[in-house]
Specification:
Blueprint lengths: L7 H21 L4 H6 L9 H4 L17 H4 L19 H10 L16 H8 L4 H7 L4 H7 L5 H10 L11 H9 L25 H7 E3 L3 H4 L13 E2 L14 E3 H20 L4 H57 L4 H4 L16 H40 L3 H4 L5 H5 L2 H7 L14 H4 L2 H21 L31 E4 L5 H6 L8 E2 H6 L22 E3 L1 H13 L8 H7 L3 E3 L5 E3 L2 E7 L1 H11 L8 E3 L2 H10 L7 E3 L12 H11 L11 E3 L8 E6 L7 E3 L5 H4 L5 H11 L11 E3 L4
Antiparallel strand pairs: 1-3, 2-3, 4-5, 4-6, 7-9, 7-10, 8-9, 9-13, 11-12, 14-15
Helix pairs in contact: 1-13, 24-26
Amino acid sequence: MSGRRQSARLSAAQTRKDASENGATAQSGGGNASRAKTTSRPEGSMSEDDWDAGDESPADVDEHADSMSEGEYEGRRPAKKQKLDKSPPKTGKQTKTARSTGKGRKSNKDCLLVELPLDILFEIFGQCPPQDLISLSRTSHLLRTHLLSEASRTIWRAAREYADGPPVAPGMTEQQWAHILFGKPRCQSCNAPNVHRVDYGLQRRACVKCLKLNLVVTSRFSRVFPELDASILDLLRYTNIGGHSHGHASNSRFYWQKDIEDMALELEKLDQDIEAGVSDAGKKHTFISERKELLKAINQHGRICSTWTVNASLRREEEKAEMMRKRFNDIRTKFMEMGYVEEDIEAIKDASSVRQATVLTDRGWKIIRSSLEAEIRATKTERLRNERFRIANKLYNAYKRGLNASQWRTLPQESDVFDHPAFKGILDSENDDAKSTEADFASIVALLPEIVSSIQAARSVKLLELIQRPPAGPVPEDAEPGDIPPSLPHPHAVDSALAVFVCKRGCRYLSWMRGNRNATPAYIGQDSAATHNCAASPYHPWHHTEPSVKTVFELSDRGVRAAAALVQTVGLNDRATCAQMDTLNARFLCKTCMPTRSGGGLNYAVYSWRSAIIHFVSSHVDKQVPQWERLDDARAESLKRAETDTTLAWACNHCAEHIARCETRTKVIEHIKTKHDIAEPDVPHDLVRVLDLEQTPAMVHIPGPGSKAEFNCLRCEETASRARLFILEGVKSHLKAKHKVGAPVEGRDWKKSPNV
């Protein structure tokens, strides 16, 4: 590109570069001239500008301020805010004293390190990591000169290799590469902090703001630099991560704007040298060829560095985790020396004061000890309490193993028993220094039969109070004063078939198994109510945390109506008992439910009398009057033989095999046949249903009128055809299709078979 075609943009860039060079020259010839004469530079050393020239930074603006920020960043350090001091001016003596006793930057004369021999200095430098070398280069002008010299290159390389850093980038020195990798995470353009990502394609560390301002994508190159040829991009470093991509790579290439300007000036200078006869065209071709080879090496090196960055991040996480493990181990050792056990100390493993990647010091231990010890003591208290509960639970299970499964059904839950004052005195003991044993419960175990009987009696009294409470019948809206409202059905005893209870605390575990979370389960009779526990799992009724004596039962009005309707359906009165209904074992259809149609008939769900009550209370919450129909005995017996109980509610009545977990009826029968050699197990002698879990109802098909094949065709002449049976619609269709009878008439064209 000739000088005549030089654009205003490139001219401005050249002007800025010349001004920067002139300013640096003028400054070096000023107040620092004496230092330049007295301080000799080692042979082959790098200048400070060479140290900072990795990303086109300006020359030093103040050699006395030996901070790296003076040369490694493109922007000038912001001026300090002037301090407003309204105190009277100091005299000459005061000023001299203040200067001599101040805490400002120490000179080289005050630094003992610079007085050491050079070989000892280099030995010290050889033991430092890259971060320390960078810091040392900013503490003293003399140290900076030595560390930036060519002679120190091996020191920087050894430090980089010890830190497991990637090879030095093409076109950069060891010092420049160490600064990019291990220097402070600041933007090299605007000095913004917390810039942790290094762009290895651009060989610089830049913040998002500077990336947005300085990156030029290939598609916008002709608009930003209309006077330049796009072939210049082949000579420039680039990245695939734009300023607006949030760190995600793309297929586009982004170039640093100042790189474009500098490369254009460099090519411009080569063209001018060729025109002036200073050099030939071969020099430019050589430059372009070497530049392309350099870019190829930079791209290959960038892929190596990207892999190193990922591995370094993982390595840092591992080192951090290892430091946290060591800190926890040190804390654990100290607490174990104080007498605590490892099981209790594990409780503080995730505490914020423990999960720190710092070494535990004596001062830090004094700060965190009290709070951590309080948490450990609380864990110890809870652990000992749980151990006491495990012992009590073991003893109560041993007591239950001595009973039959038929007695388990009405046994109080563990929490009810442990809530008894005799147990609470030991379970809630505040003595955390002694470990409890089974011997501590010996006197209480002897009282278990008495404790169980008292809990059962108290439960019966509460249920009886609900039965004896007079019912409150509904008052019609148009009732006149003095009118007596109709009385509701009411159970006469706790074993009445009308004694339907619900838990006021809203327990819904039976409904959860059906998927209906808004329903409330019902319990029929005293024995059924005894199986309920608010905090217990339906399959593990003895494992819970809250005493079920807190369960608040109430008599269910809707459940009583449903039970009364069922009792009337089978021909009994309101004084029928649960035992009488269990003996009848009838099956019922719910006429409130909408049946499904199939095969010309209707499909209904079939319920036992207990499951029918639970079904109405749970499913028909918006209905007040139940509608039942008793299934005829023939169909009922057929369904009973086909019914399969798949609920985990059964247990063997000869052993304690299912004390911890009930099983299905099929598995319990198989157990009885195998373990107890009983060929035909019987209910309730051999196996019992311990839990009142709702079964999936069986389905029955009720044929519609005329849906049974019981009609003969009178138009057929052959005997076999005349004996053929049709359903009503079938025989009419047959007459229309076969005999062309448009309006078949009973008695003339078809009749009901007398043999059906």
